[in-house]
Write a structure and sequence with these properties.
9 helices; twelve-stranded antiparallel β-sheet; alpha+beta; two-stranded antiparallel sheet
Length: about 350
């Protein structure tokens, strides 16, 4: 039975959107269940929205329909833009880290240690970066909107991998890709540890069932091993000291800081005429707040030419390629080895 008040409300609602001003009672009775169902749906959606944290409600990201990857949109801020009037590679790397953490948070993982599962927290385990490879095909500018999709998958018995695809949200153009490998470390002993079946079961349910790679091409640059740079290096920047702001919640220097250190020893003439196209970093040991770091760089060599001179890879494909080494100033231990590729800067209007 529909009350007089409900009847009147429905009639008014219908007449507002109809050219007929006289609505028969049987029409109201027929549409009432539909309107009630829609009202219930709106109420349920409202309750679901209220269940989200304040950050989730403001964040421009969500799980994809199958729940196996996560997409988020970002506006490039003025303080994220460098001398080229585009976002810096450190900005890109920070956004990759941010969307990865938000993905983990969206499926219920912890925010107090970069996506730790319940079992990991019980055993004082954390994720640390073992390898990172980023390729940027076009850098976004200030106020551009980009969309980043990310997903994670198992990587043998020792860790996991996370991939990303970056798009210009305005036109859907793929402007970058990235992949990474992560291993588990005991937060107390600072020693690496194999991923247990319990931890694996906790996160694999949120991963694609079939292998999905940001770089599916055979022999792509993300797979290339990085040769160790041997002394003497052509370029160097010595005595780099971590700032307090470089430390993250895992109590060591954050992986993005290493990118900045690597770029510190790139020669200025390259910075002036080229922009970074790709960077690969192998993380060998963690860096603490009291470490002092040397950054070494040498042009990567292709082969020995017929006349005995050394040929650079730049001769063939117009890219400048460098090998990098970050080492402890005190004991010379290797902290990180890297490889970068640089292309000529585009002519900007």
């Amino acid at each position: 039975m529909i009350s007089t008040a409900t009847f009147t409300s429905i009639r008014n609602a219908i007449s507002t959107h109809s050219r007929f001003t006289s609505i028969r009672p049987q029409t109201v009775r027929r549409v009432a269940p539909v309107i009630n169902q829609q009202a219930n749906g709106v109420a349920a959606a409202g309750l679901k929205e209220m269940d989200k944290s304040l950050a989730d409600r403001f964040r421009l990201g969500s799980l994809t329909e199958d729940g196996l990857s996560y997409k988020e949109r970002f506006i490039i801020r003025c303080y994220e833009v460098g001398i080229n009037k585009t976002a810096t590679v450190e900005t890109i790397a920070n956004l990759l880290q941010e969307v990865g953490g938000n993905h983990a948070q969206s499926v219920g993982f912890s925010t107090d240690g970069f996506a730790t599962t319940t079992t990991m927290r019980k055993l004082h385990l954390i994720w640390v970066t073992a390898r990172m490879h980023i390729e940027i095909y076009r850098y976004p500018a200030w106020s551009d909107v980009i969309e980043i999709e990310t997903w994670c998958q198992g990587e043998g018995r020792i860790g996991t991998r996370r991939d990303w695809i970056l798009k210009d949200f305005a036109n859907g153009e793929v402007i970058g890709r990235a992949t990474s490998k992560w291993v588990m470390m005991n937060e107390d002993t600072r020693r690496l540890q194999k991923v247990s079946d319990d931890v694996r079961d906790e996160y694999l349910i949120f991963c694609p069932k079939e292998l999905r790679l940001a770089f599916p091409e055979e022999n792509n640059n993300s797979l290339k091993k990085i040769r160790k740079l041997e002394d003497p290096a052509e370029y160097s920047r010595l005595g780099l000291v971590p700032r307090r702001a470089d430390l993250d919640m895992n109590k060591h220097v954050n992986n993005v800081t290493y990118i900045g250190w690597v770029l510190e020893s790139i020669p200025q003439e390259v910075i002036d005429t080229h922009e970074l196209q790709s960077i690969t970093l192998d993380y060998r040991r963690e860096c603490q707040h009291d470490d002092i770091v040397d950054s070494l760089t040498t042009l990567e060599l292709l082969d020995i030419s017929s006349n005995g001179s050394v040929a650079s890879k730049e001769n063939g494909d117009k890219l400048s390629k460098f090998l990098h080494l970050l080492r402890s100033s005190g004991d010379g231990l290797e902290i990180n080895r890297g490889r970068t590729e640089w292309r000529k800067k585009p002519v900007r209007k």
